[in-house]
Amino acid sequence: MPRRIALHTRRGAYIALAFLTLIWGLNWIAMKFGLQYAHPVTYNIERTLVAIALLFAVMVWQRQPMKPQSWIAIIVTGFFQTTINFAATTMALAGGGAGRTAVLVFTMPFWTMLMAWPVLHERVRGSEWFAVGFALVGLVLVVEPWHWQGELQPKLWAALSGFGWAAGTVATKYYVRRYQLDMLNLIAWQMVTGIVPILFIPLLFPLPPAQWNGIYMMAIIYAGVIATGAGFVLWTAILGVLPAGTASLNMFAIPVIALLSSMAIFGEHIAAAEWRGIASIGFGLAILSARAWRASRHGRAQMVEAPAIESG
Fold it and tell me: Does the pLDDT of residue 189 top 50, yes or no?
């Protein structure tokens, strides 16, 4: 029989969820530290390879079949989730603040709703339209596309990361419905296929080597082992006890943790207009979190659920 990590009480699941939310929130800080010692492409490759190794090790430990279950699902989700999302996240963090980047990436639930409509035939209803509206207004206020200077480029990278994360989430839901895929197998293999295009970049454009030191090693271990690999295992254990809608409440807290931590550690400065945009995005996330919580209490599925692996 496959081995599984299990939580036996709701109290334990809530404690694990709070712990995982803190891990994922601080992951943005860990990645920002790591990018001080490596090119974003180099850092992205190394921390993803570490995560891949851990996920396959978990598959071996759980005695799960190693063979890919659907190549089309793996390639499509890998392109959006790993090639686009992971790469854009590191590019955004390399040039912008960790907190601001996290907030922009967490526009993902709103892109997810819009894409799920034509792909999964899940309509946007009621207050979800207000959430989308607040998010789009906030996105414009934070990105400030009328200012073609400063941190516009990393902001656009962050917005692209959120879009890629959403596309990967919708694709994952579509293929899991169609083929009844095992999530661990899918996540591990989509990372493999998704990182392949990025591996060619150093071959075509020579990049400076990473400066290996204690801080960089800890940043790689934290992002690759703790946040991505172990985070997925803990997340699946939480979903074994809590409804997905309840568990997805962490999508509101993660960017808040990242933002406050970045301001405290890196002295990240947020302009007044950006604060208004962040508040607007946060209000939209709060609407979705409240809807997910109410839906889970009544035993209903919610369109936007926290994905298997937190972005970045």
Answer: yes
- End-to-end Cα spacing for the chain: 32
Quickly list DSSP for the chain: --------SHHHHHHHHHHHHHHHHHHHHHHHHHTTSS-HHHHHHHHHHHHHHHHHHHHHHTT---S-S-HHHHHHHHIIIIIIIIHHHHHHHHHS-HHHHHHHHTTHHHHHHHHHHHHH-----THHHHHHHHHHHHHHHHH-TT--STTHHHHHHHHHHHHHHHHHHHHHHHHHHHH---HHHHHHHHHHHHHHHHHTHHHHS--PPP--SHHHHHHHHIIIIIIIIIHHHHHHHHHTTS-HHHHTTHHHHHHHHHHHHHHHHH-----HHHHHHHHHHHHHHHHHHHHHHHHHHTT---SS---SS---
Predicted local distance difference test score (pLDDT) of residue 244: 65
Specify the pLDDT at position 177.
84
* Least confident among 3-7, 23-27, 157-161, 166-170: 3-7
The encoded tokens of residue 35 equal: 């990018």
Gyration radius of the chain over CA positions = 18
pTM, to two decimals:
0.84
Supply 303's token pair: 């369109």
Pick from 33-42, 59-68, 163-172 the range whose average pLDDT is largest.
Answer: 33-42
For tokens 């939310």, name the residue: 21
In whole angstroms, give the CA distance from residue 259 to residue 253: 10
pLDDT tens digits, one per residue of 239-289: 777 776 666 667 778 888 888 899 899 988 888 888 888 888 888 888 777
